[in-house]
Amino acid sequence: MMGERTQPEFNEYASNYEAVINEYVGVFGQPQEFYTRAKADHLRHILDAKGGRKHLRCSTSDADMA
Predict the structure, then answer these.
(1) How many CB atoms lie within 10 A of CB 32?
(2) Half-sphere exposure (CA, 13 Å, Cβ side) for 33?
(3) What is the C-alpha separation between 19 and 58, in angstroms, rounded?
(4) Rounded to whole angstroms, how far apart are CA atoms 45 and 27?
(5) pLDDT tens readout for residues 1-53
(6) Which SS3 state, helix, strand or coil, does residue 6 take?
(7) What is the dihedral of CA 45, 39, 29, 11, to 10 degrees?
(8) Angle at CA 61, nearest 5°, toward 57 and 65?
């Protein structure tokens, strides 16, 4: 599939993933975490509208994202 990365290719970026992402999105004045949180909030809004959030339990950090 076009654009699909294999595990070894991704592993090349694993140690500096955040720095690479910040290099691209930083030009807009916010760190990568800002956009990750915005996407999570948007997804939460969509799930709440569909009544499905109660079925989704996940987190990417120790922080409470509720």
Answers:
(1) 17
(2) 4
(3) 24
(4) 27
(5) 455 656 677 778 788 888 888 888 878 888 888 988 999 999 888 888 887 76
(6) coil
(7) 170
(8) 55
